[in-house]
Amino acid sequence: MLLGLNTATLGLDDVFQAIAWIRGSGFEAIELSCDPGPNERGKVSAPQADENLIRHLREACSGFQLVSLHGPWMSFPGFSLLSADESLRSKSIEEVKACIDLAARLGSPQVIYHSGNPGRDATDEQALALARLSFAELDEHGGRRGVKLGLEVVDFFQPAERFEGFEAMPLSNTGITLDVGHISFPNPLHPGKPSYHPYDRIGAFIERFAPRLLSLHIHDYDGKHDHQPLGTGRIDFEDILGSLREIRYNGLLCFEFSTSVKRADILRSRELLLKKMR
C-alpha cells in the first residue's frame, strides 16, 4: 500500500510548494487536486494546463511511485453528473474529461471524481439512470486515454447501498474511491445509521466491493468534523487495514485533511497509520 497526500490539504498558494513539501516529507504518492479555476491553493486547473505547466508538473512529480488526480467537485454552481439539466450535466462531464486528459498528458494512471447530487425531487431510479449515462461516457473517455477512474464515496453515492446500483453498471474502467470519513457520516437513507449501513463496518464494505476498489481517502471523523488527524475521531482503522490485508490491496491510501490541520499532525497521522500497518 502506498501512502500519499492531496496537495490542497496544505492550503498553499503554489501547487509546486505543496508538491515539494509532500516529496520532502517522504510520502510515496501524491494526489494533485484539480479545479478549473486559477492554479492556486494547491490546485491545478486542468483546462488551463499548457505544455509548459505540464512539463514542470511532470518534473516536480517525478520519483513518486504514484501520481493520482482528484477531479473537480464544486467548480461551479450546480456541478453534478446526475443533473436533469442537460447543460449542467454536460458541463460537469467536460470538466471531468479535462482532468482525465491532463492525467494522460502527465502519465498519471488514475483520476478520482465526485458524482454530485441529483435534483431535490429526483428519485433514486432517475438519479441512477443519469449516473449510468454520465459514468459510461467518462468510462469510455478514460479507457481511450489509458486512465482509470474512481467514483468517490460522497454526494449521492455516500450511502453504501447505492454502490449496488453502481456495481450493476457496465463500466470496465471505473472503480470506487472509498473515503473512510464520508462513509462514516449519518446515512441519509437510514436515520440513526452510518452511511456504511447495511454493512456492519467499513471493512465489510471493503470486502464486498474488493474487485472495484481503486483507492482510499484517509482521515478521521469525530461525528461532527471530518478531514481531521488520525486518532482524533472514531474511525476504526484496524478494521479497515485488516480488510485491506484480507483482499491483498496494494493501491493508494491518500490522506485528505482540512487546511487547518497542522503539518506536524499530518506527519503524526502518517506515522500512526504506518504503525497500525506493521
Q: State Rg.
A: 18 Å
Helical percent range?
A: 25-40%
Separation of the first and last Cα atoms: 12 Å
Number of domains: 1
Low-confidence stretches: none
**Helix segment count?**
8
**How large a portion of the residues is in β-strands, by DSSP E?**
15-25%
The helix-strand sequence is EHEEHEHEHEHEHEHEH
The CATH architecture would be Alpha-Beta Barrel
The CATH topology assignment is TIM Barrel
Strand order of the largest sheet: 1-2-4-5-6-7-8-9
Q: Mind telling me the CATH superfamily name?
A: Divalent-metal-dependent TIM barrel enzymes
Count of distinct strands: 9
* Global shape: globular
CATH class: Alpha Beta
Compute the average pLDDT.
94
What summary fits the major beta sheet?
Answer: 8 strands, parallel, barrel
Short précis:
The protein has 278 residues and is an alpha/beta fold. It contains eight helices and nine strands.
Task: Give a verbal description of the structure.
The chain has 278 residues and is an alpha/beta fold. It has a single domain, classed as Alpha-Beta Barrel (TIM Barrel), CATH 3.20.20. Helix content is 37%, strand content 15%. The chain has helices at 15-24, 51-61, 86-106, 124-145, 162-167, 202-208, 237-246, 263-277; strands at 2-6, 29-34, 43-44, 66-70, 110-113, 148-152, 174-179, 213-218, 252-255. Strand 6, helix 5 (162-167) and strand 7 form a beta-alpha-beta unit. Helix 3 (86-106) runs parallel beside helix 4 (124-145). The longest helix is centred in the middle third of the chain and has 22 residues, at 124-145. The relative contact order is 0.13. The mean pLDDT is 94.
